[in-house]
From TrEMBL:
Transmembrane segments: 712-735
Keywords: ATP-binding, Kinase, Membrane, Nucleotide-binding, Phosphoprotein, Transferase, Transmembrane, Transmembrane helix
UniProt GO MF annotations: ATP binding; phosphorelay sensor kinase activity
InterPro entries: HATPase_C_sf (IPR036890), HATPase_dom (IPR003594), His_kinase_dom (IPR005467), HisK_dim/P_sf (IPR036097), Ig-like_fold (IPR013783), Reg_prop (IPR011110), WD40/YVTN_repeat-like_dom_sf (IPR015943)
PANTHER family in UniProt: HYBRID SIGNAL TRANSDUCTION HISTIDINE KINASE C, TWO-COMPONENT HISTIDINE KINASE
Protein name, UniProt field: ATP-binding protein
Domain Histidine kinase: 787-1002
Coiled coil region boundaries: none
Amino acid sequence: MKNNLLLVFFLILFSSVYSQKPYIQYYNTDNGLPQNSVKDIIKDKYGFIWLTTENGIVRYDGNSFLVYKNFPLNSQRFTYFYGNTERDSIFTTGEFGKSLLLHNKFPKVATINKFPNFILKHHTNYLLYCSNYSYASSSGMNFYMNFKDGRYYLQENFLIYEDFHSKVEKKLSIHPIYKNTPRVFALDQLLFYIDIPSKKIRKIEKGGISDSYDVPLLTDINSKILWSQINNQIFIINKGTIYSCNYHDKQLKTSKIITLDNVKDENFISIYYDKKYKKLYLGSSIDGLQIISLSDFVSVKRPPSKPESVFYATLPYGSSSVISIFGEVYNRNGLIENKDFKNTSPYFMDYDEAGNIVTMSTNDVIIYQKSSSFKKTKSIKKVFLKDFFFDDKKYYAILKDLRNNQTPEFDGVLAVYKDQSFTHPEKKIFFRNEPTKFLPLDAENMLVGTTKSLYKISLKTNKVYTISGNELTSIRDIVRSKDGNVWITAAGKGIYLLKNGHLILMPYDADKNISSSHTILEDTNGYFWIPTNNGLYRVLESELMKYAQNKKYRVNYYKYTKDAGFNTNEFNGGSNICGNQLKNGEFVLPSLNGLVFFNPLKIKNYYPEKIYIERAMVDNKEQYFKKDLHLDQKSSRIDIFIDAPFYANSDNVVIEAKLGGSPNAKWEPIGKDRKFSISNLGYGNHILEIKMLVSDDGKFVYKKINIIIPPYFYQTLGFKIFIFSVLLLLLYLLVKWRISFLKKKNLELEGIIASRTQTLSDTVEKLVTTKEKLHKEVEQQKKLIGTITHDITTPVKFIALTAKEVLDGSNFNKQRIEKILTSIYKSSDQLYNFTLTLKEYADIYTHYRSDETEQYSLYQLIEEKKTLFNEIAEKNNTVISNQVDQSLMIQISKNILSAIVHNLMDNSVKYTQNGTITLKSKTRGEHIVLFITDTGIGMEQKKIDYYTRLQDNIDNEKLLLQKYGMGLHLVLQLLQMIGGKIIFKKNELQGTSFQLILTNKKR
């Protein structure tokens, strides 16, 4: 009921307005429809308009059509809508009775239908009847209609009502109700029956007639009734005029909506009126869809007998009309009076203090007298008036200077006059360029705009101050708002605010049409109405002031174009008055094709309220989604559609989007195709943010969509963790191997170092030992040399003395000579033997250091010495027995051991007669003991003690070489060199035993 009240209000309110030619949009197969027969029209709960055709169903959002067809049905032909809009449960039937369900903005084949379009009752078939759709008449065709509390079954001469609660059926006999379709319609849960014979409309409630109405349009046989139960709307088309029918206060009333030219009533088969946007949707059987905009703007043109309807300067005339420079008086219904002004300039018109109309004709001022009802005129010659105003005392005017021969450098004048004569100015201020508009700031200062600049004039001092430079040109108007702010419009430059002596340029709209602003009209709600060369704009002054304080603030201009009711989008400026505000509150604007009347307080602005993001085109394949859009990385191009049902001027739809994930992401405007395109988007969870303007004060609604693109297996976190783990493991193994390698190298180096250190230590030790030995050897040699020197002195001296005795003697006998020679011989022989032993010792000492002895047989060494002494031993009847172990291999210096054995065997051979010399060996660990035993005369115990003591302290004992000879001294010295030892032992029976204790290792 509430909706119908609003519908009645709107339709009655605009019934007188729409006599003007409406703005109609035509749609057919050439521009969006799949077929030219529009069967039914409905608006769902989400704000989308739906159409049924014979080639699918269509969704319309005010901007574009979205066609759905190719359903799994035998036919794509669909007829009427039925169901419940508020419950988002809308059905439409096809040719063979199968239904589609419109739910959640998407159609699909219905699987369950609580209200089927075909039922069987009492063995009779009934077809659902819920709209004006023309069924083909055939015998036996019956219908049923659903209501909230019950159901009607319609047959040719009666109807049956079934109550849903009581299950009681009631039968009502009526006149024949068929004329192709039943003569009934439903409104507000009531059934109305058109009784043609009685010219009455019967209201039927619960199976009985409760009231009757006289509605000639409904009973007229020339009327075509179009109704829709789901829309709860009824329309009547009669002779090209469309009416609405409403039930209010128990009355059934009709209201005229609009008259269409050259329209055949029978072609219309569906109608829907959108009361929110004031649009009428007409579906034709052959011509597609017509959308008629019912606007609060009224565009009035000159009569057909007049020239083109180009208007410039106009003046308010009365409370609801204006007068043009032609003397024609117009209100919103058209021309109402004509004063027939002649030869007037279209760019200047104003009232003087007496209410006379001042105009221009070429270079003369023409004044139409109010006292003569503007029939009589007077003129002022040679005055080119651009604008003027007056106060209680004086007239102020700006003029174009016509005396260029006198003042060629000036083109404009600000003049002050005592009266309207414009002939004797009290004051003149000249300008270098032509003035266009001026405005008093206070009693002493005035703003003057020219074709080049804006000036501030001091009327007290006559000084001219330039406010703007060359950037501000062609000033069209200077306006002071109710808040005292001064605004300037400039052709091609836009709107400026004059604040604290400085000009602040206001931002442009998206299409930069504000740059061609003509004037500013302010309504009582604080809105500025700005006509331009391309549309009419509206904006709150407070929004512009916010921008003046913060240049980052966003100003949104609301735009009105031809679909709002204009004949053209181009408004006119350049005159002294570019728009009027009438006493009845209406604004009047001149345009290139008519005068536009409107009440600014009744003009509604529209913004989209709902935004839906649930469709995408992925690589030319349509995809639907709810909250998240799932894609794969193979998708090269993605178009995400932004659906916002909006049926007013699409220029006022401000939608922006940005793809999150980047700190530099910026909001990008969405074009009229309302889609956001993405190419080659990488894997991950991307957030698409959408915002849409929903009010004049800059409020936005926001929507976020997750775009989820799964990674390939090698891009997953698990795989990366696995690879990272493998790399860590490899790194660990590499490090471990490297550490092991370095440890091994370190061990090798340590081994090498240890080996070299040991070698070096051994070398040092050897050097120390060698040093000690050399020291000992040197000491021994010193001692030996000293002993030799001491021992050799005696025989040498003896030989010398003996020789002297021979030389000095004169008496020699034979005996004496023999004695002397015998002494010399013995001394020389002793000296020879001593020297020979000394040479042998020197040879061994010289060569033993280079003796790199390899293993050799001790037995063979003894055999070699045995062979050497065997002849001497045989002469002494002595036997040498070699009992050394033949398998014994030693590594003792062969030269030294050979010398030691040689010396000891030599002594044994010398002092053994008729005896034996035995050599044996015995091994004790690393030590080898060589036993040399003879049966000779034996060594004195005194010598044994001497040599034993000498061996233990050879470094400190004095050598008795002269007394005991050189041999055993040499043996002891050589044993010390090889680390050996000798034990002297006197045999119990006869002879001496020597035990050589040797260390069997390489030196």
